[in-house]
Amino acid sequence: GAVVSQHPSRVICKSGTSVKIECRSLDFQATTMFWYRQFPKQSLMLMATSNEGSKATYEQGVEKDKFLINHASLTLSTLTVTSAHPEDSSFYICSARDLGYSYEQYFGPGTRLTVT
Amino acid sequence: DAKTTQPTSMDCAEGRAANLPCNHSTISGNEYVYWYRQIHSQGPQYIIHGLKNNETNEMASLIITEDRKSSTLILPHATLRDTAVYYCIVVTGNQFYFGTGTSLTVIP
Fold first, then answer.
1. How far is the alpha carbon of A40 from chain B, nearest alpha carbon, in Å?
2. d(CA B87, CA A95)
3. In this predicted structure, what is the pLDDT of residue B13?
4. Which of B38, B46, B87 sits opposite A104 (nearest CB)?
5. Do residues A2 and A98 make contact, with C-beta atoms less than 8 angstroms apart?
6. What number is the average pLDDT over the span A92-114?
7. B78 to chain A, closest Cα gap in Å
């Protein structure tokens, strides 16, 4: 089946620094990728939809200047958390849709971000 | 926003069928029902999806009522590895909006 990877799997950073998370579709091309955030014991919350070659669409309440998304190729999207604060500590998960293959999304394994 | 309602938690004996219900009373005619599951601290895993007809694959069966207002995911012979949070998602356009899901615990 289709595989999506994320890097890093875990990251610890200091408050005020920026962190970049990569999401790659390994064996398929993805025109659309999605970024989710999940706090402990809560469900996944969609943050933004990322389309290759265009600006990301952010969900209401998600700061686009804080969560920078780049989708420069059909296999790579990046999420940069700028000026991270402890409240940004969360589990960040990306997913990707295969070109023209229904609505199914393939999810990455997630990135655990801890801001100290 | 999520358009589904699921019980918060369920238990199932190992080897028995697990039946997970989902209400989606406001579903539109062209919206699909997708089921995913998430094992602790991992990304969600696709299980099955359907529009109107019942569906079956190697993992599960999906039963959708005739009025499409509810569905049931059936794991025919639950194993301990099936312990996870199961999400029923009504797909609106491109996006998935996850509800709270059902935490299924398979008991030995």
1. 9
2. 15
3. 97
4. B46
5. yes
6. 89
7. 22
